[in-house]
Amino acid sequence: QVQLVESGGGLVQPGGSLRLSCAVSGSIASINYMGWYRQAPGKERELVASIPTAGSTNYADSVKGRFTISRDNAKNTVYLQMNSLKPEDTAVYYCNANVRRYVSGISRNYQYWGQGTQVTVSS
Q1: Consecutive 10-residue averages of pLDDT for the chain (123 residues)
Q2: What local confidence, expressed as pLDDT, does residue 80 receive?
Q3: Are the CB atoms for 49 and 80 separated by under 8 Å?
Q4: Distance CA 40, CA 53 (A)
Q5: Are 57 and 69 in contact (CB under 8 A)?
Q6: CA dist list (Å): 69 to 12, 43, 56, 62, 122
Q7: What confidence score (pLDDT) does residue 55 get?
Q8: Residue 4: its pLDDT value, please?
Q9: Which residues neighbour 55 within 8 Å (Cβ) at sequence distance 6 or greater?
Q10: What dihedral do alpha carbons 85, 88, 89, 94 form, nearest 10°?
């Protein structure tokens, strides 16, 4: 069983900051990719930022220069530092991880989602 546990959401005023965390637990061989998505009411879920095991990070244009994604491989944890928050950043933020697991001796990649954490930017 693999679980993604998120934390760090909440209510913040415009211009404020929040830091989201997502820890992956369970029987995994390695984590290939981690990312953060968000979904605002009435809108589709969209990619916010992603970070591979090695290589460059990727950001949505709307958050470039304000958000920073990072990961601690030793802790199987990904972070999203969100600065200069705007009301349009209000959404439920979901952690996503693509992991490699051995099931019945066969190595396969699986994708998992966190439960979501609410971020509300309002004065």
Answers
A1: 94 98 94 96 96 89 97 94 98 97 92 97 97
A2: 98
A3: yes
A4: 28
A5: yes
A6: 19, 23, 11, 14, 23
A7: 74
A8: 96
A9: none
A10: 180
Contact by Cβ (8 Å): 75, 101: no
> Is 18 in contact with 85 (CB distance < 8 Å)?
yes
Q: Residues for the chain: how many in total?
A: 123
Across the chain, which distance is largest between two alpha carbons, in Å?
Answer: 53
Structure tokens at 61: 């244009």
Q: Which residues contact 12 (CB under 8 A, 6 or more apart)?
A: 18, 85, 119, 120, 121
Note every long-range contact of 78-81, with CB atoms under 8 Å and residues 24 or more positions apart, other chains counting: 78/21, 78/22, 78/34, 78/35, 78/36, 78/51, 79/19, 79/20, 79/21, 79/22, 80/19, 80/20, 80/36, 80/48, 80/49, 81/17, 81/19
pLDDT at residue 2, rounded to an integer: 93
* pLDDT at 54 (0 to 100): 79
Residue 32 near residue 109, CB atoms below 8 Å: yes
